[in-house]
Amino acid sequence: MEGPPELMDEGLRQAGEAVLPQGRLLDGFKEAMRVSEEAANRLREGSAEAGGDTIASVERYEVGLIEVEN
Questions:
Q1: What is the CA radius of gyration of the chain?
Q2: For the whole prediction, is pTM greater than 0.70?
Q3: What is the C-alpha separation between 37 and 33, in angstroms, rounded?
Q4: Which residues contact 45 (CB under 8 A, 6 or more apart)?
């Protein structure tokens, strides 16, 4: 996400109060990235093989969130 720096505190508040608690309720909260990454690798490799392509690069982005208790 990109946005104005002056709204960073509001964004962090929203993430801490709404996004993170809801995310924790999702199945595989901590394992989901690894599982989906494995599936994406298989799909990517199959698609590249079918088209005679090679995979030039794959980038992974991980966003960290620090919880601060009030």
A1: 17
A2: no
A3: 6
A4: 55
